Amino acid sequence: MTRQKVLICACPDLAMDGRELAARLKQAGVQADLAPPLCTPDGLARLKKLTAAKARPWLVAACGPEIHGGFFQALAGDKLLVVDVRSAADLEAALGALTLALGTPEPPEIPAVPVCREVLVVGGGVGGCQAALDLANAGFKVHLAESSLSIGGAMAQLDKTFPTLDCSICILGPKLVEVAAHPSIELLSYASLSRIAGQAGSFEVEVTIRPRYVNMSKCVGCGTCTTVCPVIVPSRWNLGLKPRKCIRIIFAQAVPLRATIEKDCCIDCQMCVQACEHQAINLLYRPSQRRLTVGAIVLATGAKPFDPAIKSEYGYGRIPGVVTNLEFERIVCATGPTLGSLITPGGQPVQRLAFIQCVGSRDRRFLPYCSGYCCTASIKEAMLALEHEPDAQVTIFFNDIRTSGKGFEELYLRAKAAGVRFIKGLPGRIHQGDDGRPVIGFEDQEMGWRVELAVDLAVLAVGLEAPGEPLPFADLAPAQDGLGFYQERHPILHPLESTLPGVFLAGACHGPRDIAETVCQGSGVAARVIRLLTALAGKG
Amino acid sequence: MSDDLRIGLYICHCGHNIAGVISPEALADAARGWPGVAVCRDHLYSCSEAGQKDIAKDIQQFGLNRMVVAACSPKLHEPTFRRLLAENGVNPYLLEIVNIREHCSWVHAREPAAALVKALELIRMGLAKVRDAVPLAQRQVPLTRAALVIGGGPAGLRAALDIAHAGIPVTLVERAPVLGGMANRLHKTFPQGQSIVSLISPMMAAVTLNPGIAVLTDSSVTEVGGHLGNYQVLVRQARPRVTQDCDLCGECAAVCPVEVPDDRGPGRGLRAAIYRPSPTAFPARYVVDALHCDRCGLCVLACPRQAITLEAEGEIEHTLKVGSIVVATGFAPFTPAGSRYEAWAAQPQVITTVTLERLLDPRGPTGGRVLANGATVEPRDIAFVLCVGSREAEGNRYCSRVCCPTALKQALELKARLPQARIRIYYRDIRTVKKEWEALYTQAREAGIGFMRAQVRDIRPGEAGRVVLEADQELGQWVSRDRVDLMVLAVGMTPGGGAALREALKLPVTPDGFFMEAHPKLRPLETVLDGIYLAGACQGPKDLAESITQGSGAAGKILALMAHDTITLDGLICAVDPGRCIGCESCYQECPFQAVEMVGEGKTRQARIITAACKGCGVCAGACPSGAVIARGFTDEMILAQIDEALAANPQEKILAFCCNWCSYAGADFAGVSRLQYPPAVRIIRTMCAGRVHPKFILHAFAQGAGQVLVSGCHPPGDCHYMAGNLRAQARIEKLAPKLAKQGIDPARLRLEWISATEGKNFQQVIREMDEKIAGEKAKREKGEKGKSQDPTSGLP
After folding, report:
1. CB-CB: which of A135, A333, A406 is closest to B520?
2. What contacts B580, CB < 8 A, 6 or more positions away?
3. Structural domain contains residue A109
4. Which of A411, B314, B480, B749 is the most exposed place for a label (fewest CB within 10 A)?
5. Residue A70: closest C-alpha in chain B
6. Are residues A134 and A38 in the same domain?
């Protein structure tokens, strides 16, 4: 049965005039009616009449599923053929889409696939952990794949969180333990994905688990091996600010709490093998493979900090007193390389320090967007500096202070009251003074002349950028924007869905965001995954 | 002590971690034969499979009914040993972990003899505690599989849809006659500039069409009782005067003689007393404005379907039983009336962003032409003023987050419609904090919109129907004057009129008036009341996408909750002994979670713990004057027994420390992990919260001769895991000081400290300082014993 009648939704967002579209269709010999916007009560009344009729010669020209959100299905099941003309760029494109649909006799049957009630969460930061916990609590089996040695993500590296200055690992730690202890969550740490194929309801995922050279069930995390290991390398987790052994437990609260050998540095001395009372160490382990079948995939892969060495005018990497804000977090953290003493990487006391905002962010050469978190983070770090050194002189160079979030403005006001100096305008460059300290050159916009400020520590508030490595989707991959962040299916209505059905987004992998927002998205994603899997199961 | 007490005592070497300082064999030899100890062994690693198998064998062989493990912190392996007990048929709560690693061997590495003595005493304390342990059951709370969503704006709509989609019935309560909330007043969204109608209406339609969602409009929640899993909610709904027979023909409004200003948003004209609140919102209906209707009855006669009854009076009461509640009551835009902007807003050239939104809408009162307050020509000079009602020195101090992008979106739309117009924005900081929002700012600058970093101090009437803005320029500190035809105040968000609801829900709000979340970072959707969740701008200013995300998030929480028929809760909660309760209400008032109810009247009035709401902090037990509250796992008897054991020998040289489970105990653990050395004088008693510490414990400790007493908890205000238990502890300690002085106890011997889980260093410092005081006292005493001191200050450090 072909359709010869078109009902056009007079959506205010149509790129063309609905009346003109109707006129052109009529010229082509198709009956075309213009209805009030179909999602309004008047339009719905019209649509109900149409769906009540037995014969269905009507085609509906309206919006796509990312906008109407199942509203047409709620009304008429899958029987109503809806053509998306709202996303058509112009009249001709809309006509083309409609002509094609008019020639299609029946909507193609989508073959039902058996729906798998297991979910893969990629990334074990706070967003991934939240999504995994909510899904597991809702009765779904969750596989949580983490590329690093421990879950916890960037939050585990922070000293305190804004705006309350809560200790980061203290509030995160219990959540990580909850993940590890949950009977419905399988934690795959030190894992990377090697292939993702399939479709919503049934994805086939291949996971490679890299060898730790330590038996996960024998190791008790006692750390004896790390005391005997003779090889000392910089700790990446502490951003190179602290040495560690070649065999190590990544950090004291790591989940899982297991030792791992960095094989590239190992000299095969076997001292750890002999020292381990549990015979847990075996230098001959090989990577292992896992094959998972999951109904949905949640991407919670996070973002990575901008590398300020590229912005060479600030001298990062050349001047020892120039550090990033994440390095600063490690320096002031009680578990960090200095056990919480505020000193420069060179070991000097810090009396003067400055924070420089928008390093990488809001810069057309690097990241054209605002990273959102850095203003409040720097203000928090300024407060931490004052906690360590009450007499320190703290300056923040800013472009706009963007403390927009619950309780953030209060923190800004508190910092001002505590004597933190805020200077509008970003410094042009940092050079090394005669004493080796960083000297910040900036323009005093009030006075209109150039000034130099020598500091013990210059902290660069670096932006967040999308991580580079793409995931190995065998067929269609979820779309990414020009900057590498994943694109949402719809920025307002479907902020948690990627463009690929069955693949969801949580946290900074689709744009910079703070912890609280990421946690909300983790929970939100759980609801959307459940919704999808319930709907697919109902169909199958 | 019962006769059939058979305790298994296990001492762990933890490789060299413990055994390197303290001899586990020596500990085991000493402890063998202590009262109740049926078997005592040391293991290289008690937590290892071999150790566990050994213990399992003992449980069967000796019929053990209690267990004490002297090993690492309970934070690490308490779950492991609880599981071991449960697997072997022993109640998992009949266990005590004695921390001889983080709190002993690691921190007294250079004093092995003192560490051994301390370890033995810690084990004695553990044995004393476990003797009083009783089997506890995990609680099963039944669950009503239904949810309530309060508020029909974007967040509430999405929450309702996501919950209902999983097959859980939802009732959606909306105060207004139609759904949609504030979205009905918007025209276009930022940053994409889509029509709001095409985004929000499909959601409204889907809610209306969903058979699992019952929508109650014109309704408000007035009473909420019950607790997680079983809330009883009373909803009052205004009785509709127009029945469902209405087919929206509009004859009624045509004949209505009453004319009132339209309250559907500023910038509208007049409407009748019977009217349709919004042409695009659901449910589609006409409503009677009872306030202005003069009961003339013309509409009743005009209605072809007899759908109007003007006599309908009063309210319909709905009693709902739900397992969980989503609060999505949204926000109200800041109104200049009553603020310093009132005089400005009275000028015809001055409008708010909310009004401009209506003027820009082609379906709006001016058909999309920018004609404010009866103007006849569209403006040429337009100024936006940001931060109106936000970031104020007096008034709302918070940033409303969305006004910057809203103003940018509107400025761009004005620029597109009126290319000749000169537009500038007066701002303090442009806060486009999202990836896509910054692009709006860039576009605006590229479109030639001016940005003035200045604060508008005042406006006055100018020539030719204009207003003059006087602004303090932030740089250069001069005052600028600017003549404009239209001035747009970018108004912020306020919590709105949810005061009555706040009372009904008993939900705390933050100082800014928005609902408070359980934790600003990790529990942003939860509230302190289990089973009640927040979504959208009622928690703080948010844009549409964030609100909708939170709607899904709250739904996710509820779906996780409702995946089970019952809710399982930990057994470590409180109970009231009716034989001892005197009905004083101390516990009722101090409980941070409203988990205590008072039952009975007069002399029989007594407290009762609502088990489903209790979180086991023991703040109530710390307040009870008659010892009636039993804080399970941390009872008075247990703690007093621990105190007695801790102070059995040389009490005057000891520091008795009460440490809360979450921060301070973990802080002491962290001192251990960091190998921070401190004097071995301290004996730690773990409580769930500092608020559990009853003054009688402190008095008892001093009566036993304790040299120093420390009470330690999480940093106020926000770190406490039980809302404000730390503050309750502080209040008690402050009250106790004069009492101590009266009893001849130097109040300086009692100390209160906030120590977080990472502040091992602070813990070390505090213990060192307290130990110095003890040493000072000791020196004083020794001098006193020798004879009268010549110099009274010589004993002090």
Report:
1. A406
2. B626, B627, B628
3. no
4. B314
5. B206
6. no
- Contacts of residue A8 in chain B, CB cutoff 8 Å? none
pLDDT per residue as tens digits for the range B261-319: 876 555 556 889 999 888 888 888 899 988 889 889 999 999 999 999 888 778 999 99
A299, A339: one domain? no
To the nearest whole Å, the CA of B28 is away from the closest chain A CA by: 22
* CB-based contact A527 B761, cutoff 8 Å: no
- Dihedral of alpha carbons A115, A120, A126, A132, sign: positive
Q: CB distance A71–B206 less than 8 Å?
A: yes
**pLDDT number for residue B565:** 87
Nearest by CB to residue B434, choosing from A137, A372, A445, is A372
Tell me the whole-structure pTM to 2 decimals.
0.84
CA pair distance B707, B693, nearest whole angstrom: 18
Minimum Cα–Cα distance from B205: chain A residue = A39
8 Å CB contact of B248 and A44: no
**Residue B772, strand partner residues:** none
Residue of A530, A52, A486 whose CA lies nearest to A300: A486
- Whether residues A173 and B757 touch (CB distance < 8 A) is answered with yes
Report mean pLDDT in 10-residue bins for chain B, 797 residues.
80 86 95 94 81 90 96 85 91 96 93 96 97 89 94 97 95 95 90 87 92 95 87 93 88 92 63 88 88 90 91 89 96 93 94 93 85 90 96 93 96 95 96 94 96 93 91 84 96 82 80 86 88 95 96 97 86 93 94 91 91 91 96 96 96 96 89 89 96 96 96 84 89 94 93 88 95 92 69 44
Q: Which residues of B touch A520 (CB under 8 A)?
A: 524-525, 546, 549-550, 553
Token reading at A435: 């004493």
Q: Which residues of B touch A333 (CB under 8 A)?
A: 758
Helix (H, G, I), strand (E, B) or coil at A485: coil
Looking at every residue in chain B, the average pLDDT score rounds to 91
Chain B residue closest in CA terms to A486? B435
> Are A158 and A296 in the same domain?
yes
CB contact under 8 A, A74 and B210: yes
| Statement to judge: residues A449 and A313 lie in one domain | yes
Are residue A423 and residue A496 in the same domain, yes or no? no
Q: State which residues form the domain around A80.
A: 5-103
Q: Following CA atoms B118, B120, B125, B129 in sequence, which dihedral angle do they give, to the nearest 10 degrees?
A: 150
Nearest CB among B47, B430, B519 relative to A400 is that of B430
pLDDT of A3 over the 50 cut = yes
Q: Which residues does chain A have within 8 Å of residue B439's beta carbon, measured at their own beta carbons?
A: 368-369
Q: Tell me: do A379 and A459 sit in the same domain.
A: yes
3-state secondary structure A378-428: HHHHHHHHHHHCCCCEEEEEECCCCCCCCCHHHHHHHHHHCCCEEEECCCC
Counting one residue from A and one from B, how many pairs have CB atoms under 8 Å apart? Answer: 282
Min Cα separation B746/chain A (Å): 31
Question: Would you say A160 and A384 are in contact if contact means Cβ atoms under 8 Å apart?
Answer: yes
Query: How many structural domains comprise chain A?
Result: 4
* Chain B neighbors of A71, CB-CB under 8 A: 202-203, 205-206, 209
Yes or no, beta carbons of B760 and A161 under 8 Å apart: no
**Residue A321 counted as domain residue:** yes
Q: Can you give the CATH number for the domain in which A59 is found?
A: 3.40.50
Dihedral through CA B493, CA B494, CA B496, CA B499, nearest 10? 160
Q: Are residues A336 and A454 in the same domain?
A: yes
**Which domains can be identified in chain B, with CATH numbers?**
1-138 (3.40.50), 147-324 (3.40.50), 333-494 (3.50.50.60), 573-620 (3.30.70), 634-797 (3.40.50)
What's the rounded Cα separation, in Å, for the pair B754 and B749?
17
Neighbour tally for B579: CB within 10 Å: 8
How far apart (Å, rounded) are the C-alpha atoms in residues B339 and B266? 18
Contacts of A369 in chain B (CB under 8 A): 434-436, 438-439
